[in-house]
């Protein structure tokens, strides 16, 4: 089976449509999403509806979960107090705005998404087993990858969350990150997704009209539009402003 994995769209419909167009050329047998579909972008409802119309199965992400689990704010603050400003933006600005744009029915659909998706020897999850909020970075040591994923019962593990695509082989395991289809952090503003076939994983990059998306974001009234626009333009995370 030729499988595509698209993750972390974050309400960026312009990028999603470019990825969908590229998927038609890549012709996978199945497309699966890795969560974080809605928050941090001005068209979350349109993104969710598009994915539902396409029938993509997938998993829940951390910024999906925060829409119905405000208690996660205190839990994540205890784990990573240095991220206070970001967590406050996510939970106190993005979550309310995104809930208003989505409506209850779409939120319930997101809430019903599973924590993991499996196909033969491949496991897809948003971050780490049992944890939507923390995951290894691309340059971590092999022992961290093994400690996180080797007990998951899969030969190939794919996750999203960190917005930095990579593929690494460690003893007995292939670990890959899909990057982000909507908000990349690796210095390349192009959308990212993965193709998986015959045990091999390939990163695919897709150009989209970043400036057109930024114009829509700027006129939308979504919180922190200027900051989100700068991240999209640079293709990398910048501190909030």
Produce the secondary structure layout.
Blueprint: E1 3-6, H1 13-26, E2 30-33, H2 44-54, H3 62-65, H4 72-79, H5 84-102, H6 104-111, E3 116-119, E4 122-125, H7 142-149, E5 156-159, E6 166-170, E7 173-177, E8 191-197, E9 200-206, H8 210-218, H9 225-234
Parallel strand pairs: 1-2, 4-5, 5-7
Antiparallel strand pairs: 1-8, 3-4, 6-7, 8-9
Helix pairs in contact: 8-9
Q: Give me the CATH fold name.
A: Purple Acid Phosphatase, chain A, domain 2
Instruction: Specify the structural class.
Output: alpha/beta
**How many beta-strand segments?**
9
Q: How many helical stretches?
A: 9
- Please name the CATH architecture: 4-Layer Sandwich
Output the CATH homologous superfamily: Metallo-dependent phosphatases
Percent range for β-strand residues: 15-25%
Read across the widest sheet, the strand sequence of neighbours is 3-4-5-7-6
- Proportion of residues in helical segments: 25-40%
Helix-strand string: EHEHHHHHEEHEEEEEHH
Main beta sheet strand tally, sense and closure: 5 strands, mixed
Mean pLDDT: 97
The CATH class is Alpha Beta
Low-confidence stretches: none
Radius of gyration: 17 Å
Number of discrete domains: 1
Global geometry = globular
* C-alpha end-to-end distance: 44 Å
Fold and architecture overview:
The protein is of the alpha/beta class and 241 residues long. The chain has a single domain, classed as 4-Layer Sandwich (Purple Acid Phosphatase, chain A, domain 2), CATH 3.60.21. Helices cover 38% and strands 18% of the residues. It has 9 helices and 9 strands. The chain has a 5-stranded mixed β-sheet, with helices on one face. The chain has a 4-stranded mixed β-sheet with strand order 2-1-8-9. Helix 8 runs antiparallel to helix 9. The mean pLDDT is 97.
């Amino acid at each position: 089976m030729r499988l595509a994995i698209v993750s972390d769209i974050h309400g960026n419909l312009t990028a999603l449509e470019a990825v969908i167009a590229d998927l038609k050329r890549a012709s996978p047998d199945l497309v699966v999403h890795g969560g974080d579909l809605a928050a941090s972008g001005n068209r979350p409802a349109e993104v969710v509806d598009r994915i539902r119309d396409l029938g993509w199965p997938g998993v829940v992400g951390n910024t999906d979960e925060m829409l119905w689990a405000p208690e996660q704010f205190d839990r994540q603050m205890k784990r990573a107090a240095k991220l206070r400003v970001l967590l406050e933006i996510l939970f106190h600005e993005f979550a309310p705005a995104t809930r208003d744009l989505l409506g209850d029915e779409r939120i319930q659909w997101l809430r019903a998404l599973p924590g993991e998706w499996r196909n033969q020897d491949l496991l897809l999850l948003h971050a780490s087993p049992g944890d939507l909020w923390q995951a290894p970075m691309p340059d971590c040591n092999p022992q961290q990858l093994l400690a996180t994923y080797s007990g998951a019962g899969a030969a190939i593990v794919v996750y999203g969350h960190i917005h930095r695509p990579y593929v690494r082989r460690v003893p007995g395991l292939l670990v890959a990150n899909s990057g982000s289809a909507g908000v990349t952090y690796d210095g390349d503003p192009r959308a990212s997704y993965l193709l998986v076939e015959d045990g091999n994983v390939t990163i695919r990059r897709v150009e989209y009209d970043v400036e057109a998306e930024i114009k829509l974001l700027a006129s939308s009234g979504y919180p922190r539009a200027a900051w989100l626009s700068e991240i999209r333009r640079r293709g990398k995370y910048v501190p909030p402003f």
